[in-house]
Structure formats: structure tokens, C-alpha cells
Amino acid sequence: MMITWKEVINFANNGNPEPDRRVEKTEAEWQEQLTPEQFRITRKKGTEAPHSGALCSIYDEGHYNCICCNSPLFDSTIKFSSSSGWPSFTQPIEKNAIKYEKDSTFGMTRVEVMCNTCDAHLGHVFPDGPEPSGLRYCINSASMQMETKNITEEIKTEKETK
Ligand SMILES: [Zn+2]
Questions:
Q1: 93 and 41 in contact (C-beta within 8 Å)?
Q2: What backbone phi and psi angles, to 5 degrees, belong to 55?
Q3: Mean pLDDT of the chain
Q4: Which of 17, 78, 87, 104 is CA-nearest to residue 50?
Q5: Pick from 68, 105, 107, 147: most CB atoms within 10 A?
Q6: How far is the CA of 117 from the centre of ligand 1 (A)?
């Protein structure tokens, strides 16, 4: 599986793939669950200051899950070091993990990236990432939590069964 810019544009224009499940909560419920910063970014489409995010310079093995609904969004194998100041990835963990929408705020046309399970705002995707996909998912640290537990074990088991 590899998502290309063409596919991203197609999703943003014509609709996104079905998620495996949906999580829907009221604004008050999200507010209770999240910190003010997490709420501002994920539910109000905010942006954290560059280089401020906790996950920015972490390259541990593991999954990056949605801070709102804990769905896996990205993993450490597709994270790359970009100078943007936000965690950057070249691909989502699954094609239907992410939702794309055209964003015309601030006088720019960009593609907004959201969690496909709960619609949390994550960041934006740009067509200037490294090959082979050429994509750069620029994601707020505050919208994700890292899950490192048992990952090394999982990888080992996968290798053994192959
Ligand atoms: Zn979510």
C-alpha cells in the first residue's frame, strides 16, 4: 500500500475511505477528556508552535495513536526528520486511518488531515516529502500519543512467522 498525492487529492475532492469504526462524542465530552491544548488543536483545528511538540524529536519504535480515540494513525517506520518543527510522516498506517479535506483558510489551499475515526484535526499533508511517496504529513504532537508497549515483541513475532 502506498498513498500518492493524486490519491490524497481524490479523497479530498470525492470522499474518503470508510473507517473501521467511528467514535463520536459531544464537544463537552471531548473537553472533559482532553487537556486545553489538545482540545484546541484536535477539536478546534488549532496548530501548536513549531518545535514545541513532545513527539517532535522522538524516534522510538511504536505506533502514533489519535489522542482522542486512540486509533493508530502512523508508525515510527514512516516517520522522518523534517526541519518543519512538527512530527512528519510519509504515509498513514492504513489507507482508511486518515481523512482528507480541502482547507482554504489563511488564503492558501491546503489539504487538512484528520483522524478518520473521530474527525480529530491532526495537521496537513503536502506533496514535498521524500521519495517514493513524495508525501509529507505534518502533524501536531498534541494530537497524538505514542504506543511503544509490546511493539518490539510484535515485530519479532511477525518475523518469526514469515
Ligand atoms: Zn481519533
A1: no
A2: -95, 5
A3: 88
A4: 87
A5: 68
A6: 5
- Please, which residues bridge with residue 106 across strands? none
State how far the Cα of 57 lies from the Cα of 53, in Å rounded to an integer: 8
Return d(Cα 20, Cα 43) in angstroms, integer.
21
Rounded Cα distance between 95 and 103, Å, is 20
Cell numbers that stand for 42 in this block: 484536535
Confidence at residue 57, expressed as pLDDT on a 0 to 100 scale: 67
| Ligand 1 centroid distance, CA of 71 (Å) | 6
Residue range 41-45: average pLDDT? 96
CA–centroid distance, residue 98 to ligand 1 (Å) = 9
Amino acid in the structure at residue 112: E
Neighbours of ion ligand 1 (CB under 5 A): 66, 68-69, 71, 115, 117-118, 120
DSSP class of residue 90 equals S
* CA dihedral angle for residue 120, residue 126, residue 127, residue 128, rounded to 10 degrees: -130
CA 142 – ligand 1 centroid, Å: 12
**Which residues are part of the catalytic machinery?**
138
pLDDT in tens, 130-149: 999 999 999 999 999 988 76
- In this prediction, residue 161 carries a pLDDT of 47
